[in-house]
Amino acid sequence: MPTYRVLSLDGGGIRGLVTTVLLERLAATPGLENLLDKTDLVSGTSTGGLLALAIANGLSLAEMRDMYVKKGPQIFDDSWLDDLVDLGQLRGADYDTGPLRRELRRLFGDTTLGKLRKKVLVTAFDLDNEDPAHRTWKPKLFHNFQGKGSDGALPAWKVGLYTSAAPTYFPSVDGFVDGGVYAGNPSMCALAQTQDARYSPTPPMNQVRLLSLGTGTNLQYVAGTTLDWGYVQWARPLISLMLDGTAGIADYQCSQLLGDRYHRLAPTFPNDVNIPLDDVKKIPYMLDFAAKVPLDVTIDWLKRFW
Q: Which end of the chain is more exposed for a tag (fewer CB within 10 A), N or C?
């Protein structure tokens, strides 16, 4: 069986711009022009889920870059009226899903997951499975693999809303929230999907190559050894904590299982730079930062394994 190539894209809100520029640079490298064309499975969480859907639909990286740069300020527009209704950030999500919904409808139209050009795996979290016998919340992996459990009939734009509904940032959509609550880095989810016997033929593990891209890592910590915190204090730090924590463990797991056939590109912002998921004012900085990230190691890996 030929090489099976998986591209995994982290969550990170507006920082998805960093991922987009990195991919643009990689795909512009002589010898790697067909980087995305050769990809068999694209997986993503949150902003990475939007990129995964776009790539699978054949949209250009330039178009996605424009989405972040031009539409980002509208998507993350926290009006004074919304703050008033939500009592600041104490009640209600920061942002309305309307602008993002309109943009996704524009990008994908009526395209369903089943009509995408590539296999995709997009993470979300189901807050209520509505099963009378075993009613609970659970992780949800949206995919277009043919067979039992396929989500091929779902509109791509709607799945994009599901994976982007980060708690406290956006309201839930149809009972789903951002998959970043359990898989900020969906690499391990994607690797497991390649081995799911329900969607045979499955590639042998030694034929799988996995490239994982981050959105730019903030150097963060919580000082103090005993934190007597409640809901209010933990709310926002917990989002970043979950994203970074799940990204780290997925990186470790994939590295152990795939060895040299796995590579992660996850640049870190300088000590004095912190870019929250919604910091659209840092768009110029992110463009400059992503344009200067060293790519030699990643390029060498791609030319050797991809």
A: N
Distance CA 275, CA 286 (A): 9
DSSP state, 68? I
Whether the CB-CB separation of 276 and 13 falls below 8 Å is answered with: yes
Q: List residues with catalytic annotation.
A: 46, 178
pLDDT band at residue 189 using 50, 70 and 90 as cut-offs: very high
48 close to 186: Cβ distance less than 8 angstroms? yes
The Cα–Cα gap between 264 and 267 comes to: 9
Q: Round to whole Å and give the CA distance between 112 and 153.
A: 6
pTM across the whole model: 0.92
Task: Render 145-201 in DSSP notation, one character per residue.
Answer: -SSTT--TTSBHHHHHHHHH--TTTS--BTTEEETHHHHSSTHHHHHHHHT-GGGPS
- 230-236-239 Cα angle (round to 5): 110
SS3 247: helix
Summarize the confidence of residues 251-272 as an average pLDDT. 97
Residues contacting residue 93 through CB under 8 Å, at least 6 positions apart = 86, 167, 168, 169, 170, 171
Q: What share of the chain is helix, strand, coil (3-state, %, to 5)?
A: 45, 15, 40
| Residue 290: per-residue pLDDT | 98
pLDDT tens digit sequence for 201-229? 899 999 999 999 999 998 888 888 888 88
CA atoms within 13 A on the CB side of 12: 28
Q: Name residues whose C-beta falls within 8 Å of residue 21's C-beta, 6 or more positions apart in sequence.
A: 65, 286, 287, 290, 291
Q: For the chain, give the number of residues.
A: 306
